[in-house]
Amino acid sequence: MARKSTWKRLTGQEITEAKQRTLAEQEDEFDEEGELWIEIEGERMGAAIQATFREWAIIDTDGGEYLVVESYEVAEQLVKDRWREMDTDELLEMIGAEQIIQSWLRNQSFEDWLDDYIRNDGPAGELAGYDGEQGEVGGTSEDLIEDLGFTPSVAYRTN
Known about the structure:
Layout: H1 6-9, H2 12-29, E1 37-40, E2 43-52, E3 56-61, E4 64-69, H3 72-84, H4 88-95, H5 97-105, H6 110-121, H7 124-127, E5 134-140, H8 142-148, E6 154-157
Antiparallel strand pairs: 1-2, 1-5, 2-3, 3-4, 4-6, 5-6
């Protein structure tokens, strides 16, 4: 005699009760109102906003401080803006006179050099002071999205 599956052996009332228990368990996983959390690289962490700007913010989490950004393109622009705001002395210190001279000898403009720098190193080297890595944001609580004013897609750990 073939064995019936568990669901086939249950009565209609037992099935209804099992479904209700499953739904109740799922509801426990939903956000509590006002809860701020973010999931970075598969790890869900509580979050508190330190500072927020139009397309990026600095947040504290259970796992450290992060710069969260709306998109990779916004992160690239942040790095480019930082380099563009440096004065000559800062550029010499950061890049080095030899690198600047080599770029000029190749008829490479600062913008060309900056594009190459971003293409080769990406924004993580500049923005992720802790580990130099970019983290993918897998989820964000609705309340955090509302408070930030954007939905972050990438994160860079700063400490």
